[in-house]
Every structure is written in C-alpha cells, then in structure tokens.
Amino acid sequence: MKLITAIIQEDKLDAVREALIQADISRISVSRISGHGRQEDIDIYRGRKIAPNLIPKIRIEIAVNEEFVEVTIDTIIKAAKHGDGVVGDGKIFVTPLEECVRIRTNERGGEAI
Question: Where are the domains of the chain?
C-alpha cells in the first residue's frame, strides 16, 4: 500500500479528478493549501526584493494498493501538466502506507482502501 500525495495548481483540480475517475480511482482527499517552490514570484517594493508570496495550491491524497501506484501517478501527470517546461505544475510524493483501517467494519490493509 502507498500514499500518493500530489500538489497541483488550483485550475487543474477538475481535470485531475475526472482523469482519476476514468482510471477507476475514486477515493481521494482534497485540501486547499498554499506554498511556493521554484516559481519566481518576487516582488520589488521601493527598490527592495520582497520574499515570495505563498501561492494557492491543491493537495490531493490517495491511498492505493500496489497495482494502482503507477496508474495513479501517470494519470495525475497527464491531467495536471500545463505544458512542456512550465514551472509550477506541482509535485507527486509516494510514501509507504504501513496500515489502513476502515473504522466502520474494522477491515485492515488493502481491503480497507
């Protein structure tokens, strides 16, 4: 089991959600966050550089079984990309998921996902 966390631009949320549903991945969590990476958003105020502003982003978290890891990653990449060489499209993090428990039924592991 893996936890896939994707940070994407706000305007790509609907496209990513629809692509994931088409790939038979429908159980996701979405959060609104803010941050900045490599994209330069440096303002100059009275001749001084001001620290980059935090940019609104979307965090998507998806718990998947091993057979869905690559499908999920590929789907997110295709749907979230604005074009070649565009800075700020986002990141995907894949982390091991030690345990998953469905509260209602007490199912554990891959069945709970």
Answer: 2-111
Residue partners of 66: CB distance under 8 A and separation at least 6: 1, 2
Question: Top-level CATH class of 2-111?
Answer: alpha beta
**Token match 């007490």: residue?**
106
Alpha-carbon distance of 76 to 92, in angstroms, equals 8
pLDDT in tens, 20-41: 999 999 899 999 998 877 666 5
Identify the CA nearest to 73 among candidates 97, 94, 99, 57: 94
Whose tokens are 């749907």? That residue is 79
Q: What is the pLDDT of residues 47-88, one digit of tens each?
A: 777 666 788 999 999 999 999 999 999 999 999 998 776 677
